[in-house]
Amino acid sequence: MKNSYLTLILLILLGSFSSKAQQDPQYTQYMYNTQVVNPAYAGNRESIDFGLLYRTQWVNFGEGAPNTGTFTVNSPIANNMGLGLSVVNDRIGPAIETNFNVDYSYSINTSRSGKVSFGLKAGFDILDVDFTKLNIFDDNDAYFQENNIDNKLQPQIGAGIYYNTEKFYAGLSVPNFLKTEHFDKSSIENTAVETTASERMHFFLIAGYVFDISENLKFKPATLFKMVNGSPLQADVSANFLLYDKVTLGAAYRWSAAMSALVGFQATENIFIGFGYDYQTTDIEAYSDGSYEIMLRFEIFNRPERVLTPRFF
């Protein structure tokens, strides 16, 4: 029975609920998925903006490898405000976690082209864990047959700040201030192993700039830092080149974790499609074929002149 508990704990420590490992999902195309981590971005593109992203991690690693899907929609509303919805579905091993959040922002113009936005995020998280999907030492262990976690609800409250001009952006956010405990040590008897797994506050710092190299070529570096107590600082750095305002080609590096390739297409004035590939620089690459992302952004412009002055982030 003790081995069964150790199996569960090891899985948790390796997964998205560990208190000493990454908890929130990670994205290679974070520069196009800002609303998920920073509510102050809602309404920032001055259009009704829909976003879809799917990430499959460690392809061919085996059953239970992580995969993540996100859906976002946001729009400006009256008096410098923005409103949106963000949904994240994250799966790893026997666990499925889904977040539903409403995002609200209020913006203040700081110059002719610059503004600072303040955002709030509020919603709930649903957790399901099916212990029957584990490789359990004792198949007759009653605990794992009777104690699945079904639709466990937890509230979420987050906030962020975001500043941008036509060429520069930077944001700082905490998507969830609440510390959530998914497993309770007191619910498992006859074990000395600590089984409480908590979600801790994550701090996200994102920044980027658009350089005009020539009339038909732009350079778009970006970076993302993720900080959480008990884990090393995660740093992502990317460099994208935009050709003729239509095709984006780039590369990225996640510190001590992965190297990435990025491709994007502005298929129409309203539709952008992006692809990302990660090559793990850790030992796990020997057991997988990398990680893949695909994303789609669709915009409905509420002002015709908006099309003539495109946003690059």
Descriptive notes:
It is built from three helices and 17 strands. It is mainly beta and 313 residues long. The strands form two sheets. It has a 14-stranded antiparallel beta barrel. Strands 8-9 form a two-stranded antiparallel ribbon.
Key descriptive features of the protein:
single chain; two-stranded antiparallel ribbon; 52% strand; globular; 313 residues; disordered N terminus
Report the uncertain regions: 1-22, 184-197
Mean pLDDT: 84
Percent helix range: under 10%
Radius of gyration: 21 Å
Major pleated sheet? 14 strands, antiparallel, barrel
Order of strands across the main sheet: 1-2-3-4-5-6-7-10-12-13-14-15-16-17
Sum this structure up briefly.
It contains three helices and 17 strands. It is mainly beta. The strands form two sheets. The protein has a 14-stranded antiparallel barrel. A two-stranded antiparallel sheet has the order 8-9.
